[in-house]
Structure formats: structure tokens, C-alpha cells
Design a protein that fits this description.
The complex is a heterodimer of chains A (about 210) and B (about 475). Chain A is built from seven helices and no strands. Chain A has about 210 residues and is mostly helical. Chain A has one domain (about 1-205). The N and C termini of chain A lie far apart (about 55 Å). Chain B has about 475 residues and is mostly helical. Chain B has a domain at about 270-478. Chain B is about 75% helix and about 0% strand. Chain B is built from 19 helices and no strands. The radius of gyration of chain B is 21 Å and the shape is globular. The two termini of chain B are about 30 Å apart. The chains are: A mainly alpha (about 210), B mainly alpha (about 475). Chains A and B meet through helix 6 and helix 7 of A and helix 5, helix 6 and helix 9 of B.
Chain lengths: ~210, ~475
């Protein structure tokens, strides 16, 4: 079982690099959608005894992270008619290198942290940290509002991976609450993006710079 | 009772959202706020109502914040009726629905005894307040809302990771992975230190972003500056208090784990940094609302400092949450009136506000004196109690710096505010003015001001009992 989980986590890590290495926003959205679906399967594999609640939680995560949110983003993208992330703060190649550094850091960090023995042979903790850092890189180095929202989603995905270790601590209602919050946050962001685009004729966040000291 | 306090506002928010008449819809606000405050007082009077189930219990610090926010909410909602009457041209559907829903989210924050549930509630407060900032529908308010949503969401995401780390620290300490506040407190000495430290830092950054502590404060001047005064009051008095409460629970767990020495230095340092940042950015500030935002940053710094000083200052810190919240209400509501009368919130344009708006101008002046710590108002009492605590804890340097920053803020804030209030007004013909002080626009502010004054002179026994309970609950001597 550990092998399957680790394979899945490696796939998620690879998807992080896809999101960093792509300049077409639509393909980043596809990448995040696949990542969302893979994430949804993780709890089923980690927790050996299946029950109806676990299945339901998994299904909700897949529907929200893999289908609903990416659809919403694609629609927002169609409305604003922008295809590419042109001129990010740092280019594609440096982004990938940063991503590699982040992943290495995540592995080093995990090796320094005291883990519960049964988590030692799983990649869950480093994958969680690396995915979060990838989200951060997208958030800080891209200027298009939508790409920043995708960065936020990837950041949340990373946290979700860590949360899988603690399924016992999170009652079903709370788990749903967290997913709902993420969904609404991105829903509101997509509405704001439409407004930004309408009043600035662009979704470049560098336009949003009139408020400063 | 918890369900009533949480779902009643949500129901009213839904009703307000489907209600057709733009003219009468604002009445939903006081119609929610009045029962909400009534329910709150009922819970405070009858302790057996404070326990709903194991996740929803109103603990003493929660009681303080719930009482504060619902009091503030009542006055703000009364003010909102006249405000929205004045701005008839604007559709207020989203405004009313979100503002009412905010009350429900606050109830959930105060009641939740499960750290992840509390996180969900805090994130909900962010999401319902974001559209409120956009009420003016212009480019600047879009920018403010975007920054607010992005910075807060990322900050809050870190708090979620910190929450998970807390559960992991329990798991690594050989206990079950749990996020129940009570269980964590009970198991606190067994929590794994490394994970707990990391968790504390992440939660401090996360909820600190929501509180608006420097250097995570950048969203604050923008969103307070561009939103209506009433939203400034709700954010500076209500939202920040909720974030503080969330952090207070984390602080309590770490305190019980014997990590006070580890936290104390960080909290004192960050508190002083926030005060210093506020003092620096107030100098030369020409925008009155942004000025108030920096004042909010300063006061969040003060309560963080109070937590860092520890139990001797706890009473003052909790009292300061109340006095800051109420005084911020007066400041933001009166500056809202000034903004409307002059059509500007820039001190270059606003002159002689006291002459033009005798009530709003005077209230703003008194509230300015109150918030900077002048007697005989509530903030003076709480600031003094924190200072006293610092001396009692033998933190003399901290106390000295604290006093120095208070003085700097007083000077920095005083110059532009006095400039705006004094002198003759540039509006030549008073008859042509579209906005003037009325009972509806000033009454709620006067009500809040009276509370600030009363608390400055005398703290009623039930309230001091509540504060002592909270101090005792947090592990100090009452």
C-alpha cells in the first residue's frame, strides 16, 4: 500500500512542476484539476478500513477540487480572454529551478523533523511541504490575478495532503467546512477577477497599485 | 443556544438577500442585531445555556468577544439604517446580507471548541467581509478587496497548517490526533515540542495576519481606507477581536504546555514592532481612515504585547479588546460622517469639521483622545492595567518602549486630526450642504461613546466578573 501512496505522491510532485513550467493558464488549470483528483484518492489509500464517511469525504474532495473549482476557473479565464501568463516576475526556467529547490528543502525539512514511526516510509510530509511551497512560488512570481488564485489553490492542496495524516482529528463536518471555505474563497476571487478585468481591462495585478503610502 | 446564535443571523441574511425592497432592506440589520444581543445576554446570565455539545461551548474569553461584537454590531446596524438611506442609489442587497451573516460567523468563532472548526469560522468571517469592502464599486475598492482577500486567505491558510501541526504534535506526543480544545489543554504537557513550536509560529503568523499585526498588516490601511466607515468599525472592532480570540486559544494551549518563555519574547517583540510601524506610518498621513487603520495596527500590537507580558497583564489585555473595539466604533462611524459631509477623507480637504458637524466632529475628537489613552476613558484604564502588568512582571524596558510608542502615536495622530477638526470650514454656504448631523447618524455614535466613558470611570461588577473568569480560565490568578 505504501508503494501506491508514494507513487501517487510523486505524481502530485510532478504535477507541481507542470504548473510551474507552463505559461498557458488553461494548462495550469488542467494540471491543478488532475492534482485535485489524485488528492481525493489519497485518504482512501492511507486509511485501510474503508467506511461510508471516508468514501463520502473523498468523493466531495474530488468533486470540489477536481471538477467544480477548475471549471469555475476555466469559465473566468474564458470571460477575460487572456491565454498566457506573459512576462512573469521570473521566467519559466528559474521557476522550475525554484521548484526543485523547494522540493529538496521539503525533503531535508522532513528528515530533520521527528515523525511518528509509521509515517517515516511515506512521502506525505515532504509532498505536503513541497506542494505548499509551489503554491507560494506561483502566488509571488506571477502577476495575473487568476494564476495567483491557482497558486492559492495549490497551497491549499499541500495543506490538505498534510491533513490526511490526521483524519481522526477532523470530524466530517469540519472537513466539509474546510472544503466549502476553499470553494467559496475561490468563487469570490473569480468574481473579483471579472470585476478587475472590467474596470482595468486587464487581470494584471500590477495595475492594482494606487493604494500605497 | 449556540445554534440559535449561529443560524438566526444566517437565516436573516438569507431573508435579506431575497427581500425585494432596497429601501426597507436595511431594517433587517437592527432586526437581527437586537435579538442577537438579547440572546447573548441570556447566555451570559444563565451559565447552563453556555454548553451546547462538546464542540460548542462558550468559554469566558468567548463570552467577552461575543458580547463586544454584538454590542458593536447593534450600534453599527442602527447607524447603517441611516447610512444606507443616505446612499439610496446603491444596491444594498449584498451589503446587508454579508453584514448580517458576519454576526453568525462571529458566533461560531466564539463558540467553537474545536480548533479546525474555529478555523472554518475565521475563514468565513474573511469571506463575508470581502464584499463589504467593495461597497463603493470603484477601482480603489476593488484593489482593496483583492489585497484583503488574497493576503488574508494566504495568512489563514498558514493558520490551517499550524492547526494541523498542533494535532500532529499531539499524535507525536503519544496521544490521539485531536483538535479538541479541551483535550489539547488536558494533554498539553505531552505535546511534542518541535511540532508545537512550529505550530505556534504558523498560527501566530496566520491569525496575526487577520489581526493586522506588522509586518502582515499591509491589507489593513487599504481596506479600511476604501470601505465605508461602518465597515471600518466592524473590521477594526469585530473582526480583529475574533482573530485575537482565535490566537488567544492557541496561546492558552501553548501556555498550558509550559511554553510561555518561548512565546513571551516573540509576542513582546512583535507587539512593539506593530506599535512602532503604526507610529512611523502615522507621521505625515493625510488620509483620516488610513490613519485609523494604523491606529488599529497599534492597538493589536498592544494586546499582543499584553499577552507577551503574561498573566499580570491578562486582565488589562482582555479589557483592552473591549475598550479598543468600542472606541474604534466611535472613530470609524464619526469619520464616516465627516467623509460624507466633505466628500473627502483627506486632511487637505477636510477643515473645520467641528464647526460644520458639531456632533460628529466633537465625537471624533473625544474618541481620538480616548484611543490614545487619555483619561477618563476605557482605553486609558486598560492601557494602564497592561503597563502595570509590565512593571509587575519586571519588564521595565518593555514598559518604557511601550510608553514611548504611545507618546509617538499620540503626536503622529494628533497633528492631522486636529488640523481636520479645527479652523473654519472651506464650504462657504452651509445651506447647500447635502449632509448634516442628524439624530439617526449621530445617536448610535453617542451611545458607543457613552459606553467608552462609563467603562473608563467604572467597570460594572458583572463585566469585571466576566473578565476575572476569563483570566482565571487562562491560567492566571483572578
Amino acid at each position: 500500500m505504501t508503494n501506491i501512496i508514494n507513487t501517487l505522491l510523486v505524481l502530485i510532485l510532478v504535477l507541481n512542476f507542470f504548473s510551474l513550467g507552463s505559461s498557458r493558464i488553461q494548462s495550469i488549470i488542467h494540471t491543478v484539476a488532475i492534482q485535485g483528483v489524485l488528492l481525493g484518492f489519497l485518504p482512501l489509500l492511507v486509511h485501510s478500513h474503508l467506511n461510508i464517511w471516508l468514501l463520502l469525504a473523498s468523493l466531495t474532495a474530488i468533486v470540489i477540487k477536481g471538477i467544480l473549482i477548475p471549471n469555475m476557473m476555466s469559465r473566468a479565464l474564458r470571460n477575460v480572454q487572456i491565454k498566457k501568463e506573459v512576462e512573469p516576475l521570473i521566467g519559466i526556467m528559474p521557476s522550475l529551478i525554484l521548484g526543485a529547490i523547494a522540493t529538496t528543502f521539503a525533503l531535508l525539512f522532513t528528515s530533520q523533523m521527528p515523525l511518528v514511526p509509521e509515517h517515516n516510509d511515506k512521502l506525505i510530509v515532504p509532498a505536503a511541504i513541497a506542494t505548499m511551497l509551489t503554491g507560494f512560488i506561483l502566488l509571488t512570481t506571477r502577476f495575473k490575478a487568476l494564476t495567483q488564485v491557482i497558486g492559492y489553490l495549490i497551497l491549499e492542496n499541500g495543506i490538505y495532503i498534510f491533513g490526511i495524516l490526521l483524519l481522526g482529528a477532523m470530524p466530517m463536518v469540519v472537513e466539509m467546512g474546510v472544503l466549502l471555505d476553499v470553494f467559496v474563497a475561490i468563487f469570490v476571487s473569480c468574481i473579483i477577477i471579472a470585476k478587475i478585468n472590467k474596470s482595468f481591462s486587464s487581470m494584471d495585478t500590477r495595475m492594482l497599485s494606487s493604494l500605497k503610502e | 443556544m449556540a445554534f440559535l446564535l449561529i443560524f438566526f443571523p444566517l437565516l436573516m441574511a438569507g431573508a435579506a438577500a431575497i427581500f425585494k425592497s432596497n429601501r426597507w432592506r436595511p431594517l433587517f440589520l437592527p432586526l437581527t442585531a437586537l435579538p442577537q444581543l438579547f440572546f447573548t445576554i441570556m447566555v451570559l446570565v444563565k451559565p447552563e445555556l453556555a454548553v451546547t455539545n462538546s464542540w460548542l461551548v462558550l468559554d469566558p474569553p468567548g463570552k467577552i468577544v461575543l458580547l463586544l461584537v454584538n454590542t458593536l454590531f447593534l450600534f453599527c446596524s442602527l447607524y447603517a439604517v441611516s447610512y444606507l438611506q443616505y446612499r439610496k442609489e446603491r444596491d444594498n442587497r449584498v451589503f446587508c446580507a454579508c453584514l448580517i451573516a458576519f454576526a453568525g460567523a462571529v458566533s461560531l468563532v466564539t463558540w467553537s471548541q474545536h480548533l479546525a472548526l474555529m478555523w472554518v469560522a475565521i475563514e468565513a468571517t474573511t469571506l463575508v467581509t470581502a464584499p463589504l469592502i467593495y461597497f463603493n464599486h470603484n477601482q480603489l475598492s476593488i484593489e482593496a478587496m483583492w489585497k484583503y482577500l488574497l493576503i488574508s486567505s494566504v495568512g489563514i491558510a498558514l493558520a490551517l497548517l499550524g492547526t494541523f501541526f498542533m494535532a500532529y504534535s499531539s499524535m507525536h506526543g503519544g496521544k490521539e490526533a485531536t483538535l479538541s480544545y479541551v483535550t489539547l489543554l488536558k494533554n498539553a504537557p505531552h505535546l511534542s515540542k518541535t511540532w508545537l513550536h512550529l505550530s505556534f509560529i504558523l498560527l501566530f503568523i496566520g491569525y496575526g495576519t487577520k489581526m493586522g499585526l506588522a509586518p502582515m498588516h499591509t491589507w489593513k490601511p487599504d481596506s479600511y481606507g476604501e470601505s465605508p466607515g461602518i465597515i471600518g468599525a466592524i473590521l477594526a472592532g469585530g473582526l480583529t477581536s475574533c482573530a485575537f480570540l482565535a490566537f488567544l486559544r492557541v496561546y492558552h494551549i501553548c501556555h498550558a504546555a509550559g511554553e510561555f518563555a518561548y512565546m513571551s519574547k516573540t509576542l513582546v517583540f512583535m507587539g512593539l514592532i506593530s506599535m512602532a510601524t503604526a507610529a512611523i506610518f502615522m507621521v505625515g498621513q493625510r488620509d483620516l481612515k488610513r490613519m485609523l487603520a494604523y491606529s488599529s495596527i497599534e492597538h493589536m500590537g498592544i494586546v499582543t504585547l499584553g499577552l507577551g507580558i503574561g498573566t499580570p497583564a491578562l486582565f488589562g489585555t482582555l479589557l483592552h479588546i473591549i475598550s479598543n473595539g468600542l472606541t474604534k466604533g466611535v472613530l470609524f462611524l464619526s469619520v464616516g460622517n465627516i467623509h460624507r459631509a466633505f466628500g473627502s477623507k483627506n486632511v487637505d480637504r477636510v477643515r473645520g469639521a467641528i464647526r460644520l458637524l458639531p456632533f460628529s466632529g466633537t465625537l471624533f475628537l473625544i474618541a481620538f483622545l480616548a484611543i490614545t489613552g487619555s483619561p477618563p476613558f476605557a482605553p486609558f484604564v486598560s492601557i494602564f492595567a497592561i503597563l502595570n502588568g509590565a512593571f509587575e512582571a519586571e519588564k521595565y524596558i518593555t514598559a518604557g518602549l511601550f510608553l514611548m510608542f504611545l507618546l509617538l502615536v499620540f503626536i503622529g495622530m494628533g497633528a492631522p486630526i486636529l488640523k481636520a477638526l479645527q479652523g473654519s470650514s472651506p464650504v462657504p454656504n452651509r445651506e447647500k450642504m447635502i449632509f448634516r448631523d442628524t439624530i439617526a447618524s449621530c445617536g448610535p455614535i453617542i451611545g458607543l461613546m457613552v459606553l467608552v466613558f462609563i467603562l473608563g470611570v467604572y467597570i460594572p461588577v458583572p463585566l469585571s466578573g466576566l473578565l476575572n473568569d476569563a483570566v482565571h480560565f487562562l491560567g492566571g490568578q483572578p
